[in-house]
Each structure stands twice: as structure tokens, then as C-alpha cells.
Amino acid sequence: MAYDLLKGKKGIIFGALDENSIAWKTAERVHEEGGTFVLTNAPIAMRMGQIKELAEKTGSEIIPADATLAEDLDALVSKSMDILGGKLDFVLHSIGMSVNVRKGRHYTDEKYDFTAKGWDVSALSFHKVMQSLYKADAMNEWGSIVALTYMAAQRVFPDYNDMADNKAYLESVARSFGYFFGKEKKVRVNTISQSPTPTTAGQGVKGFDGFITYADKMSPLGNATAQDCADYTVSLFSDLTRKVTMQNLFHDGGFSNTGVSQEVIEHFS
Ligand SMILES: NC(=O)c1ccc[n+]([C@@H]2O[C@H](COP(=O)([O-])OP(=O)(O)OC[C@H]3O[C@@H](n4cnc5c(N)ncnc54)[C@H](O)[C@@H]3O)[C@@H](O)[C@H]2O)c1
User: Percentage of the chain surpassing pLDDT 70?
Assistant: First the structure.
């Protein structure tokens, strides 16, 4: 059901790779709610071509940008304001990648060039995106910026590897930049800590299939899907959450506050 929650609002959505991507589902949902936006992804992701389908469906333009390059981000922000006809109301950062995970390096055997690259893509890029927006004064008052994170920032999930450290940094950047964006521009900044979700990035984590089932059994409401995450993101982009900022918001069916569930006890009895 659509409620026109984002009617007249404009923004940028990072990270729609294919139809499983959380950003893809969010773009569809934002479109349904009346929002208009520019889609962006790394130039290498463009070559896979699927994002064009989403752009056609949502009447959006695509601007390639590597989120680790300040010059790409500055150009993206300025072109987006030209295309959309003014300042922005919402931005979704839905970007993650660990080279150590991709190359199968154990957490106790990191290659630090890989670590630095993964941190730049997954964590520092959020600061870079916000710095570009801030310097260009590109956000309207009461705008909303959201990034996606995972609970490995607070608790150990051994196979999440160096992404756990990247997410801890990302969540800290949301708080620190959220202070300045709130004070100076009345813009809110939050992270959504999402359940395990079967996407390209999610399935790259070792043991993902067993893990997603475990999380589902541990969550009183079951895992939150990518579609659920899109709904929650829309609420954070809407005017109904104007005073929510600098928060890490768990969107996980109750997993983060559950010690053990009946299903898990029965499994081990
Ligand atoms: N899937 C899960 O289980 C899960 C759980 C919690 C949080 N998250 C987070 O959700 C976000 C979205 O991931 P997803 O699960 O939808 O997977 P996904 O693989 O569909 O999306 C990741 C995106 O990051 C983009 N990207 C990589 N390098 C980039 C760069 N240099 N510049 C710009 N974009 C770049 C990829 O092209 C891709 O579109 C990530 O931050 C991820 O860590 C995922």
C-alpha cells in the first residue's frame, strides 16, 4: 500500500546491484511513495547492466560514481541537484564489500591492503558521501540520510570478518556527522542494522545459509526481509521521523534483544 509519504521529495540511492539488493527494493518503494531520485553505483556494477531496468521502472537517471572517490561524489551531488531541480531530501548509502572476505582471508590473517580497501568502500565512503553533501549544501532542512549496517558492529559473528570493524566505524560516522548535520542543517543521519538478507553482499559471508536460518529462529518476528527494510527506510525518509537522528536502529525481528528462543533450545535438547 502506498501513502504518498515521499511526495515531492528528491534524493540519491546508492547500491542497487540487482533485484535482491536492499537498495533496489528501497528504490521501488520510494518510487511508490512519490519520491524521485538518481540511482548510482560503482562504474564496474554498471557494466552488469541490471540497474537500467530499475531506472526505467522508476523513471530515474543513473549516474555512475565510485563511493571512495571524492571527485566522483562531488560530481554526483551536483548533477543530481541539476536533474532533480533542487536540493535533496533523502540519501541511502547501501554499500559494502570486504576484499578479505572475497579472497577467503581469515580475520586472524588479514592482508592489510585488502582491509584498507574494504574499509574505504564500506565505511569511510559514508563520511565521503556526507562531506560532499555538506560542502555543497545539497540537503534540504529536515532531510534524512540512512546507511545500512549489521549487528556484528556490537557482537561477534566470526565469519563476518573485517566487515564487523567496518560497520562499527560506519555507525560511529553516522553519530559524529549526524551531530554537525543536525546542528548546522537540520538534517538527520541514522543507520539501520538489518537482519541477514540473501543478497550478493550477504551471501558472500561464509556459512550464510545456516546463519540466516539461525537468525530467523532466534527472532520472535522472524528475519526482516529486504522488502521490510525498504518500508522502514521509507519511514525514516518521511516527515514522520523528523527528530530521530544519530541512532543505530535495529531492524531484525527482535534478534538483537533475544538471548535464546524456544526453537533453539529444542534444537539442542
Ligand atoms: N545482506 C545482508 O545480510 C545485510 C545485512 C545487514 C546489512 N547489510 C548491508 O546492506 C548494504 C547493502 O548490501 P546488500 O545486502 O543489498 O548487497 P548488494 O551486494 O546488493 O549491495 C552492495 C552494493 O555495494 C556496491 N558497491 C561496492 N563497491 C562500491 C563502490 N566503490 N562505490 C559504490 N558502490 C559500491 C555494489 O555495487 C552493490 O550495489 C551493505 O552496506 C551491507 O553491508 C546487508
Answer: 100
In CATH terms, 10-268 corresponds, of 3.40.50.880, 3.30.565.10, 3.40.50.720, 3.40.50.300, to: 3.40.50.720
Compute the distance from residue 208 Cα to the ligand 1 centre, in Å.
Answer: 15
For residue 236 and ligand 1, the question of a CB distance below 6 A is answered with: no
Cβ of 68 less than 6 Å from ligand 1: yes
pLDDT of residue 219: 98
The CA 111 to ligand 1 mean position distance, Å, reads: 21
Integer-rounded Cα radius of gyration of the chain: 18
Q: 199-202: which pairs have CB atoms within 8 A and are 24 or more residues apart?
A: 199/17, 199/20, 199/21, 199/22, 199/226, 200/17, 200/18, 200/20, 200/21, 201/96, 201/97
pTM: 0.98
Q: Ligand 1 centroid vs 268 CA: distance in angstroms?
A: 34
Mean pLDDT of 51-56: 96
- Residue 212 Cβ inside 6 Å of ligand 1? The answer reads no
**Residues 64/41, Cβ–Cβ less than 8 Å:** yes
Please write the tens of the pLDDT for every residue from 206-241: 888 888 999 999 999 999 999 999 999 999 999 999
Nearest atom (ligand 1) to Cα of 66: 32
Domain ranges of the chain: 10-268
